[in-house]
Amino acid sequence: MADKGSTQRVVIIGAGFAGIEVARGLGKAGVPVTLIDRQNYHLFQPLLYQVATAALSPGDIAEPIRKMLRRYRSVEVVLGDITGIDREARTVALADGTMIAYDWLVLATGSMHSYFGHDDWSVSAPGLKTIEDARRIRSRLLLAFEEAEMSRDPAEQKRLMTIAVIGGGPTGVELAGSIAELARYTLAKDFHRIHAEATTVLLLEAGDRILNAFPASLAAYAQRKLERLGVTVRVRAAVERVTDRSILLAGEEIGVGFTIWAAGVSASGLGRLLGVPTDRAGRIAVNGDLSVPQLQNTYVLGDLAVCKDEHGNPLPGLAQVAKQEGQYLGRALARRIREGLSPPPFRFRNRGNTAIIGRHAAVFDFGWWQLRGWIAWVFWALIHVYLLSGFEHRLLVAVQWLWRYLTYERGARLIVEQPKRESG
Amino acid sequence: MADKGSTQRVVIIGAGFAGIEVARGLGKAGVPVTLIDRQNYHLFQPLLYQVATAALSPGDIAEPIRKMLRRYRSVEVVLGDITGIDREARTVALADGTMIAYDWLVLATGSMHSYFGHDDWSVSAPGLKTIEDARRIRSRLLLAFEEAEMSRDPAEQKRLMTIAVIGGGPTGVELAGSIAELARYTLAKDFHRIHAEATTVLLLEAGDRILNAFPASLAAYAQRKLERLGVTVRVRAAVERVTDRSILLAGEEIGVGFTIWAAGVSASGLGRLLGVPTDRAGRIAVNGDLSVPQLQNTYVLGDLAVCKDEHGNPLPGLAQVAKQEGQYLGRALARRIREGLSPPPFRFRNRGNTAIIGRHAAVFDFGWWQLRGWIAWVFWALIHVYLLSGFEHRLLVAVQWLWRYLTYERGARLIVEQPKRESG
Predict the structure, then answer these.
(1) Do B403 and A390 touch (CB under 8 A)?
(2) Chain A contact probe: residue of B61, B79, B395 with most A CBs at under 10 A
(3) Exposed e or buried b for every residue in B95-132, given b needs 16+ CB within 10 A?
(4) Considering CB atoms only, which of B58, B97, B400 is closest to A424?
(5) Is B403 close to A395, i.e. CB distance below 8 A?
(6) How far is residue B218 from each of residues B225, B353, B376, measured CA to CA in Å?
(7) Helix (H) or strand (E) holding A375
């Protein structure tokens, strides 16, 4: 362990991919850290869509923060909601009245959904960011099929069995593919009256094509694969209105059983507490070392930050960016506090951008190289099992995936939070 | 398959151990069945305490009802809340206005908590019957430790780290043992400031001893084992008042972090809809063939029924009783409907009454034979894995138990529904 005499405390807000890595790096160096999060677990968000589509349980992709950091005696974990940051006094205020003093502040609170000014749509079309979101989406999805089975009206059944996913990025693609597979392979066997395999999954993208962060050839491949699964992909399809029972698209009203929002994110509101300018998405532009211009001892990273690469292009809001930033900052901050050294700026190394479409179909973009199809799908599964935190999670997820691959079953088909159902 | 011409429909309300078996028996015979439940899953309640104590995920012990009954084409599954039973018209009304006609009615809606006239205690001391209950208990339990870690007041820490379990039956014993192990083996490593291994778990029983349905020698063994785990067992301890922060016991106020109610159950309120007399616990006395006296074509079974054995003693409210009753009624009703035959009365075969205390410690009572200790514990685990519905659940639970046995870890330590926390 390094010098124990240091009394400089680092307060990290947010235990996502970025925050947890900063805490690890500082913990290894023995730097006193307080890590604050509103949840007691770290969530592996890349697999959240599998919870929303009944393939995994929430516990499979959530790891207690205390367990992840338990070996670092200098790291303290606090469960709490931040209500204020006092830059003069260098304190953070929690909702329960606690004040926590810092010498260095690290903000990594990530992003949330953005409805581009249509916040009222959030009730009818929930987004997917938290475990509660995933559980709500899973329940509403399964309830739509229950209601269709009960209905005697073919038009109503058709409406209920039309699921819309708004947004053609990786999350939208993964949700649409997974819902189509759930309906076709699993629910089709469960229901006797309705033909769940005839479910309409609409994937709606306002731009010219889906997966616009990927090369056009991979996007075209993904669209073909989705269509083969029964997903209706519509591009240049900007949604004009969303209700519980319909969406309005280029003046056309389409009846839907349920809509999921995967179109936009904005940075978490916590950035505003810092009192510095943010961009339109609520993000804070940072220096090359992830520090905030004009502020002392304050760093922002992950989805909350806009960090530019060596060509001046902003880095995307990806888990691997957040994780690498966290690893960099953990090491850099430890050296700065311990040795007073200024670190070289952060450099992102692209480990490959990926999206999964369904069984035997995934895409990888490594920049200089692309991969798709069966091999990409196996590769995707191996990487995601490897990236999960904790051997138990890896084992459980691998067992469940293998089981699902062999049987087409999905174990976690629970309707747990019953929203108010429309009568009939 | 048997005669398809029958138009006699059996409506079963409740998909617990009893209801699901009736549906299976009738489904095998091709009798038209409508099975109604307010959940879309069948819950394996004997392991619910493991969800409440962060050892398993809800999805591990819940199986979709549709999946369990999917092979029986004559069985229809309906998700709905019953609001009325019209005995004259032979219809059941659902909350969404649907009316379902029956020729034969089977009621198997089980039991819920009873606070013996102190329903206001339910907020401070939740009981354990549903997945929502288990999730709530898990969150409140883990939150008590989070708050203790934040507190700077030793008295307050001691209060928060005192967990009371009211009721010394199998559920109370299993909860107390599991909480003591969670604190001592798992949480003790997670928290740096508090000493979670010093947690006080109070097991409070109003009667003369715990496990009063078991022989005294097994109860004494269980108490010794619990005490070795650090559980404080108090018998003849009738709780006089319960609040969020304390319990009153023989005039003594004991500060607690959280209280769990495992003291009493009463039959589900649905029995009253039948309009027949019930006992004090809301149960309906049934004939030897599980039919309801004075009612035609109506059967009640499981925890909702009082069925007497050949010596005139009422059968206990156990999963194995409900399951055997369901198996009996499924066969008997199929024969009655198909062939007009009156079946011989139901006879219960005791498969062994069991409770688990903790690692290497469980008790079995087979009536003529008792078993305890390490062998009983292995036996308990094997039986419960075997009884779970579905190979995937068996595999996942077995893997998690093995993992927990080897590492003392519990994967599902999620605080997901945060109740309002007291400030400070």
Answers:
(1) no
(2) B79
(3) eeebebebebbbbbbbbbbbbeeeeebeebbbbbbbbe
(4) B97
(5) yes
(6) 11, 11, 11
(7) helix A374-387
**Residue among B48, B414, B422 with most chain A CBs within 10 A, to mutate:** B414
A341 — phi, psi (to 5°)? -90, 140
For residue A220, pLDDT over 90 is answered with yes
Number of Cα atoms under 13 Å in the Cβ half of residue A359: 17
Task: Write down the pTM of the prediction.
Answer: 0.92
Separation between Cα atoms, residue A349 and residue A248, nearest integer Å: 41
- Tens digits of per-residue pLDDT, A284-342? 999 999 999 999 999 999 999 999 998 999 999 999 999 999 999 999 999 999 999 88
The residue of chain B with its CA nearest to that of A76 is: B192
Burial group, residue B422, by CB count within 10 angstroms (0-12, 13-18, 19+): exposed
Spatial separation of the C-alpha atoms in residues A101 and A105, rounded to whole Å: 10
Which member of B146, B411, B421 has the closest CB to residue A393? B411
Kindly identify which residue of chain B lies nearest to residue A407, measuring between CA atoms.
B392
Confidence of residue A391 (pLDDT cuts 50, 70, 90): confident
C-beta of residue B142 within 8 angstroms of C-beta of residue B415 = yes
- The angle at the Cα of B107, spanning B106 to B112, to the nearest 5 degrees, equals 160
| Beta carbons of A96 and B67 less than 8 Å apart | no
Is B88 exposed, middle or buried, given 0-12, 13-18 or 19+ CB atoms closer than 10 A? Answer: exposed
Q: Which residues fall within 8 angstroms of residue A99, CB to CB, at 6 or more apart?
A: A91, A92, A93
What long-range pairs does B275-280 form, CB within 8 A, spacing at least 24? Answer: B275/B85, B275/B87, B279/B306
A contacts of B99 (beta carbons < 8 Å): none
Does residue A88 have an active-site annotation? no
Cross-chain residue pair A96–B423, CB shorter than 8 Å: yes
Closest-CA residue of B relative to A401 is B392
**Structural domains of chain A sorted by starting position, each given as residue range(s) with its CATH number in brackets:** 10-38+80-113+265-339 (3.50.50.60), 121-263 (3.50.50.60)
In eight-state DSSP terms, residue B15 is -
Residue B155 neighbours by CB distance under 10 Å: 9
Inform me whether the pLDDT recorded for A1 exceeds 70. Answer: no
**Residue A322 CA to chain centroid, in angstroms?**
12
Q: One of A147, A174, A205, A325 is an active-site residue; which one?
A: A174
Catalytic residues of B: 174
Give the C-alpha separation, B264 to B269, whole Å: 15
Whether B9 and B51 have beta carbons less than 8 Å apart is answered as no
A189 to chain B, closest Cα gap in Å: 7
Of the partner residues A40, A96, A424, the one whose CB lies closest to the CB of residue B96: A424
Residue scoring higher pLDDT (B5 or A257): A257
Report d(CA A273, CA A291) in Å as an integer: 16
Q: Which ranges of B30-153 does DSSP label H, i.e. alpha helix? A: 48-52, 65-69, 121-124, 131-150
Cα B74 from Cα B334, distance rounded (Å):
12
Interface touch B59/A415, C-beta < 8 Å: no
Nearest CA distance, B96 vs chain A (angstrom) = 5
